Amino acid sequence: MVESLRTSRAGLTNMKLKLLVAFVLTLGCLVAAVAYSSASFDGTNPPHAVDTDGKTIPESSATQPDKPIILSKDIGNNTDPDNKYGELKPEAAFDHAKHNTDLKHTLDGATLTACVECHHTEQPSAPAGRPYLKTFNPKRTEILTTAQLETSKEPVKDCRTCHFQKSTAATDEYPPKSVMYPREIAKQMGTRESGDLDNQTAYHARCIKCHERAMKRDATLKAPFQRCDDCHLPKGTSPTPSASPATATPSPAS
Q1: pLDDT tens track for 93-118
Q2: Can you give the residue ranges of every domain in the chain?
């Protein structure tokens, strides 16, 4: 009788221990899930880009940034071949106002740079000569302009919605598959196709090509493109706040 009681108590204790372990494991999974869902893989935690005042640039927005943007704040260790360079220098921050309201900072010096030159998904369909553009925002019934953004209030997605960062680790829930490098783009750049058109490649293809053309037109422009350290800080170096560029004053959108 006594032995049977001991066995029963031992079984009850083991069951309680198993239930406690199961509870702890379940709680751990829930905590991990909350932490996982609160982190942004697209670059807000940690931020992929901030303005020159340190404000995080959201993944999508219906408002044009009013300050220049410092990209590559979360640049990975394998995004440059020599593993030397990190985020952009403050003086190399991208200024929307300077590019779409100042003719001096345009490709031909005569035509303002269109928003869709970079935000190419924000138009109803592919423009003439660019049939390789396949993805478009179905809610954007007109080509994106500053005026259209103001009236439509339709958010503009950031580049990393499609062009993922090369160093982003894949998970079951988040496979960072980038769009493929179109043959037409490779021909334009005089290079070979290189597989995924990731975030780094997209930025460099757009920025370098535009700066190269602008410098040929006007050699006095400060639009460097030949060296990595023209734009990038050495890895591990923090930008100097006083080096932040002044923001161009936007002209009224037409």
Answers
A1: 899 988 888 998 888 889 999 999 99
A2: 50-243
